[in-house]
Design brief:
alpha+beta, Helix Hairpins, Alpha-Beta Plaits, five-stranded antiparallel β-sheet, 7 helices, about 20% strand, cell membrane, transmembrane, transmembrane helix, MscS_channel_2nd
Length: about 290
């Protein structure tokens, strides 16, 4: 390229008019990005106000379903606004959006045929939310994974186990779900006493302990039931107690009741059986035989 052509091309590229155009494009891109963030923030705030208004209304809504729909609407708004933002930014750089959108439609159709698992995940996720199979905050078991639902997305579901692991499961792979958060739970407590213990006294002490625990506990739905003798074991009499409690709290209720009953039994001298070994010594007598 001749030197004068190079100088002419550089002068045209960095002319005042060109620089003004570039500056205006940069300003528009930044403005479009800022507006998109503001729109997402406004949508989130509006959604929070709607939820707050629903909470104050006399007609109460399911908190589980509300949390799930909140996350889903947030994701949909974010995806939509980000997609429009990308298109507007491309338009500022002179990209013709007509052929691009047409190509995107054809590409989407091809992906729909090729990525059937993706379509299956999306459809399954829609029915999970529509049928309210489980919601954010529920304790569920999906296949061998058990934990608390953190997010129900368009394609995947995230559950966090009680030990901290986060399991990401494609919605299309969810075949069977056990939901532990829909109905109240039943805590089953088996208490063993020794055969030497007074059964009637043990029953009275247990009833008093259960009544005191019910008065101070906020986890129980109703007074626990002492069902009576469950089994007669080799060295113990086993009594069974059932307590209806709030969903997923049966483990905590079992541990607390075991501790309360142990303290009460110690105060009243009721023995809880433990392994014992009894040794019998047989005296042997020597017999002399004469000739």
């Amino acid at each position: 390229m001749p030197v004068w052509n190079w100088y002419e091309w550089t002068a045209n590229l960095f002319s005042g008019e060109r620089l003004a155009h570039y500056t205006w494009v940069v300003v528009l891109v930044v403005l479009i990005y800022v507006i998109s963030r503001i729109v997402i923030k406004i949508a989130d705030r509006t959604l929070q106000h709607i939820i707050a208004a629903r909470d104050k209304s006399p007609l109460k809504f399911d908190v589980r379903r509300t949390n799930t729909m909140t996350k889903l609407v947030h994701n949909l708004v974010s995806y939509t606004v980000n997609f429009i933002t990308i298109l507007l930014i491309l338009a500022q750089f002179g990209v013709n959006l007509g052929p691009l959108l047409a190509g995107a439609g054809v590409l989407g159709l091809a992906i729909g045929f090729g990525a059937q698992s993706l379509v299956k995940d999306i459809i399954t996720g829609f029915f999970i939310i529509f049928e309210d199979q489980f919601a954010v905050g529920d304790t569920v078991q999906i296949d061998q994974f058990k934990g608390t639902v953190e997010e129900i997305g368009i394609r995947v579901t995230r559950i966090k186990s009680w030990t901290g692991e986060v399991h990401i499961i494609p919605n299309g792979n969810i075949k069977q779900v056990t939901n532990f958060s829909v109905h109240n739970s039943i805590a089953v407590i088996d208490i063993s006493i020794a055969y030497e213990a007074d059964l009637n006294k043990a029953n009275e002490v247990l009833k008093e302990t259960l009544a005191k625990y019910f008065e101070k506990s906020t986890k129980l739905v109703k007074m626990p039931d002492l069902l009576g003798v469950q089994t007669l074991g080799p060295s113990e009499v086993k009594l069974r107690i059932t307590a209806e409690c709030l969903p997923t709290l049966q483990g905590e209720v079992q541990r607390e009741l075991h501790a309360e009953i142990k303290r009460t039994f110690d105060e009243h001298g009721i023995e809880i059986p433990y392994p014992k070994t009894v040794t019998y010594l047989k005296a042997e007598r020597a017999v002399e035989h004469g000739a």
